[in-house]
Design goal:
By secondary structure, the chain is an alpha/beta fold. The protein has 2 domains: 5-59 and 371-413, Urease, subunit C, domain 1 (Roll), CATH 2.30.40.10; 60-335, Metal-dependent hydrolases (TIM Barrel, Alpha-Beta Barrel), CATH 3.20.20.140. 31% of the residues lie in helices and 22% in strands. It has helices at residues 74-79, 81-98, 112-119, 173-186, 214-226, 238-246, 260-269, 277-286, 294-317, 337-342, 348-354, 357-362, and strands at residues 5-12, 21-29, 32-37, 47-50, 55-58, 60-65, 101-106, 127-130, 134-136, 168-170, 192-195, 231-237, 251-257, 272-274, 320-321, 380-383, 401-406, 409-413. Strands 1, 2, 3, 4, 5, 16, 17 and 18 form an 8-stranded mixed beta sheet that branches. It has a 5-stranded parallel beta sheet with strand order 11-12-13-14-15. A 3-stranded parallel beta sheet has the order 6-7-8. Strand 11, helix 5 (214-226) and strand 12 (231-237) form a beta-alpha-beta unit. It is globular, with a radius of gyration of 21 Å. 52% of the residues are buried. Keywords: Hydrolase.
């Protein structure tokens, strides 16, 4: 049982409202926020942290991470082995927590094993949600085989033709999609991710290509609905975004090539979009120097041309936008630069909501994460300065955070 904490004299951003209450005392015990009060709380043997008027806000959520993606070149990632990928994941998750991300959504490659390591406190990291292996069709974005590789046809046993890699599994047809969805959910996946369009790092699919048939997508969505969870879909072009939302997908990842009409459709359906500008920017700038394949570099350049303008379309349509980064390999250190890219379009308040309450709502964690209220998880940050006026305070890899509290425990505390 963690020690009772009292954060004294805080200016509270609750994850939603731009008008912050001041002079608030926040009581934390048993990993939860117990009370918010303007009077001195009557708590025995509590540790008091005097916030001294600084901004106390919810811990942030990065809804699109790949901790096990130890390199942007898939062949290297596979070749270096599971131990190397795990060591990279630990380093990346520790970095994310120190930046103020007290929860992450591992959206391809995560596992029960990593979730248990975090739950058992084998290392200090954020709250961890994972999709397991991504479902992709043959030749889809998650099928990283080169064009010259021979196919793997089914043999005597049912598993002989199944293509796996460290982050995805190939599933074709309704029956295979159902089986693989059930398998990932059996292994504790919090949600399921599919490849709904072509992508950047895959070698054989055009970025404009729609992927998976309607019956396959609906079958996956139905399995998740029965499990009281949801489907996320990787989509770049507008056509893929629209059809996935129409078929029941809850969150769209990237949407770099979205148009105005599709953005309005997404908003009307109440679906969510998780843009990931920083990975596209970094691949455009660094791709050639880190050995990115020419065909992938061309696709990254194409996506970047409309990535920022796509945010305008989402904002104008009233789409519920979440926070995500999608960084691979050594690029993980650029996680906080996503704030700098988003402020070209969104206000500080909008970005803060994206990184807290909107992301929590999308993840079906409303009222538990991304907010400062009684009964919520005590995942909290204390910021030196006012991020509602200056979002760049969150761009400095945690340097402007005096306190990081995760599940009621002080991960960082500069206030004594």
């Amino acid at each position: 049982m963690s020690q009772t904490l009292v954060f004294k004299n805080a200016r509270v951003f609750d994850g939603v409202n731009g008008d912050c209450a001041e002079g608030i005392n926040v009581v934390v015990a048993d990993g939860l926020i117990q009370e918010l009060t303007t009077t001195a709380p009557k708590v025995a043997d509590a540790r008091v942290v005097d916030v001294a008027g600084r901004t106390l806000m919810p811990g942030m959520i990065d809804c699109h991470v790949h901790p096990f993606a130890s390199d942007s070149v898939v062949q290297k990632m596979e070749g270096w082995g599971e131990a190397y990928r795990t060591a990279h994941a630990v380093r990346m998750l520790q970095f994310a927590l120190q930046c103020g991300f007290t929860a992450v959504r591992d959206i391809g490659g995560g596992s029960f094993s990593m979730a248990k390591a975090l739950a058992d406190k084998l290392f200090e990291g954020p709250r961890y949600f994972y999709s397991g292996k991504i479902l992709t069709m043959t030749g889809g974005h998650g099928d990283f085989r080169q064009v010259e590789e021979a196919p793997r046809y089914r043999a005597l046993c049912a598993c002989a033709g199944t293509v796996f890699n460290c982050c995805a599994v190939v599933a074709d047809g309704v029956d295979e999609c159902i089986k693989m969805t059930r398998e990932e959910l059996r292994q504790g996946a919090h949600f399921i991710k599919i490849m709904g369009s072509g992508g950047v790092i895959s070698p054989t699919d055009p970025i404009w290509m729609n992927q998976y048939r309607e019956d396959e997508i609906r079958a996956i969505v139905n399995e998740c609905t029965e499990r009281r969870t949801y489907v996320a879909a990787h989509c770049h072009p507008a056509a893929a975004v629209r059809r996935c939302v129409e078929f029941g997908v809850r969150s769209i990842e990237h949407a770099t090539l979205i148009d105005d009409e599709t953005a309005k459709f997404v908003a009307q359906r109440g679906a969510y979009i998780v843009p990931t500008l920083i990975i596209v920017e970094q691949l455009v700038q660094m791709g050639r120097s880190i050995g990115f394949a020419p065909q992938s570099q061309e696709k990254a350049d194409h996506a970047w041309m409309s990535a920022v303008s796509g945010l305008d379309k989402m904002r104008n349509a009233g789409v519920k936008v979440c926070f995500g980064t999608d960084l691979l390999g050594e690029l993980y250190r650029q996680q906080c630069r996503e704030f700098a890219l988003r402020k070209q379009v969104f206000s500080p308040l909008e970005i803060l909501r994206q990184a807290t309450s909107v992301s929590a709502e999308m993840m079906m964690q409303e009222g538990r994460l991304g907010c400062v209220r009684a009964g919520a998880h005590a995942d909290l940050l204390v910021v030196d300065g006012d991020p509602l006026k200056d979002i760049s305070l969150l761009e400095a890899n945690g340097e402007n955070l005096s306190v990081i509290c995760r599940a009621g425990e002080l991960v960082k505390n500069r206030l004594g």
